[in-house]
TrEMBL record:
GO terms for molecular function: pyrophosphatase activity. It comes from Herminiimonas fonticola. It holds the Pfam family Ppx-GppA. Residues 305-468 form the Ppx/GppA phosphatase C-terminal domain. Signal peptide: none annotated. This is Exopolyphosphatase/guanosine-5'-triphosphate, 3'-diphosphate pyrophosphatase.
């Protein structure tokens, strides 16, 4: 049983689901209209009131999660947490409230998860499709075929800022609506050729905003009853007739949704006009369902992060044999040090695979280039935090340790750094590590026992070990070496 929590700009949502052998059945859902996106001040910081409201909501979600026997929980935060300048300061309190780590995911990762959720509900494995998700703070466009994603892009335009910018204080009129649509079209204009109708056969809308618009059209007999430009224009004219968000009275539309529906409708009209979409089908699946499927795939050892690393390795033409050697050796040495848990095991393995991708930029300082690339690359399946940790590992693979000094406070992470540094050293010396021949411990100091033959047969090893001792001594860690026969 898995749980997915989506900390969106409009609302916080929760899904708890169980895989029944074929699909994931949702057994519990919850929604809180937190409106986090409207809680940013003029400097881009979350206000105290917004943070307090979010923490109260997260505590309520925590009480729900605690009543289920969950195998895994993933909490993802989207656009507002991405752009809030004080999100890092807010995270510890938020994580304490919900009881789980919160992952601030990129817009592209959000799009991929949305597509996974939508694709899981559609039968065709050959259909070329476009998926649109209009969120509170961002809008995602994803192009794919069946379960495979071909193109994903996130645009920093959502219902909250669009409503606040053009429908101030809830006022709705024809001039501002047209201005909101034109503004939105300008945001999609450059990317439009990639997503135009000739590249897909079906268009789907996954967000709560799109489903709310679709419900308003069908339940109130607007236009032709479908998500078409004719129907959207009919809904637009009806909203203009109301004149104010507080006066919106449509069958099936909740009051909290009505406040941002003008901005969402303007974006939807703009996308359909710009991309030439004649009709769109609303789908009751998206980000949360995608997160649940991602957890299911990880549990069955089909982790898409593995494929992302392999793709990145090949994209930058790194030597795969050397990469495998470093990754496997680092993992073996890490296990020798008996870490408290496996938190860093996979990240270390992936960092080992990617440690030389910086060579595609320059042989000088390649570890710095690789670290930058890993932290900033678009790696499917990875969170910002995971990429940052891998970046630190790769940065620390050689040279002084002061550059990652704070990371050494985490004893298991320090072990991962040591494992990768030694693995890279043995890779350069072409020494295949036999775990039966070495002993490695790291507690208050590092104790390393290795065969004397390694040093005699590979003269540079003695030099590099002495340099390694100096690097660890420089950050206050003793490093003792023992050679056995």
């Amino acid at each position: 049983m898995f749980a997915a929590v989506d900390l969106g700009s409009n609302s916080f949502r929760l899904h708890i689901g169980r895989h029944d052998g074929e699909t994931i059945r949702i057994i519990k859902s919850a929604r809180d209209p937190v409106r986090l996106g409207a809680g940013l001040d003029s400097k881009g910081n979350l206000t105290p009131a917004a943070m307090q409201g979010a923490i109260e909501s997260l505590a309520r979600f925590n009480s729900i999660l605690s009543t289920y026997p969950l195998n895994a929980v993933r909490v993802v935060a989207t656009n507002t947490m991405r752009i809030a300048k004080n999100s890092a300061a807010f995270l510890p309190a938020a994580e304490a409230a919900i009881g789980y780590p919160i992952e601030i995911i990129s817009g592209e990762e959000e799009g991929r998860l949305i597509y996974m959720g939508v694709a899981s509900t559609l039968p065709s494995l050959t259909e070329r499709r476009l998926v649109l998700d209009i969120g509170g703070g961002s809008t995602e466009l994803i192009l794919g075929k069946g379960l495979e994603i071909e193109q994903v892009e996130s645009f920093s335009i959502g219902t909250v800022p669009q409503t606040l910018s053009f429908f101030r204080e809830g006022n709705i009129n024809a001039a501002t609506f047209d201005a909101a649509i034109l503004s939105a079209r300008s945001r999609f204009e450059d990317a439009a050729p990639v997503y135009r109708s000739e590249r897909w056969s079906g268009a789907y809308g996954s967000s709560g905003t799109i489903r709310a618009i679709s419900d308003a059209i069908s339940k109130n007999g607007l236009g032709d009853g479908n998500l078409s430009l004719k129907s959207l224009d009919a809904l637009k004219r009806r909203l203009i007739q109301f004149g104010h968000a507080s006066k919106i009275d449509l069958i099936g539309m909740k009051a909290d949704r009505a406040t941002t529906i003008p901005g969402g409708l303007a974006i939807l009209i703009a996308v359909m006009q710009e991309l030439g979409i004649k009709v769109m089908k609303p789908i009751d699946a998206g980000l949360r369902m995608g997160v649940l499927w991602d957890l299911q795939l990880r549990a069955t050892k089909r982790d898409r992060r593995e494929q992302s690393v392999r793709d990145c390795l090949r994209r930058f033409h790194a030597d795969e044999k050397r990469a495998e050697f470093a990754a496997q050796t680092a993992s073996a040495l890490f296990s020798l040090m008996k870490p408290a848990d496996n938190t860093y095991a996979k990240l270390l393995n992936w960092a080992g695979l990617l440690h030389e991708i910086g060579l595609s930029v320059s042989h000088s300082g390649y570890h710095k280039h690789a670290a930058y690339m890993i932290e900033n690359a678009d790696l499917s399946g990875f969170t910002t935090r995971e990429q940052r940790l891998m970046s630190y590992l790769v940065l620390a693979q050689k040279g002084n340790l002061r550059k990652v000094g704070d990371s050494l406070m985490d004893s298991d992470f320090a072990k991962a750094i040591l494992a990768l540094r030694l693995a890279v050293m043995f890779m350069h010396a072409r020494i295949k590590v036999d775990l039966d021949e070495v002993r490695l411990k790291m507690k208050s100091k590092i104790e390393f026992e290795l065969p004397k033959a390694w040093v005699s047969d590979h003269p540079t090893v003695a030099y590099w070990i002495e340099k390694e001792k100096e690097c660890w001594s420089d950050v206050g860690v003793d490093f003792s070496i023992k050679l056995n026969s």
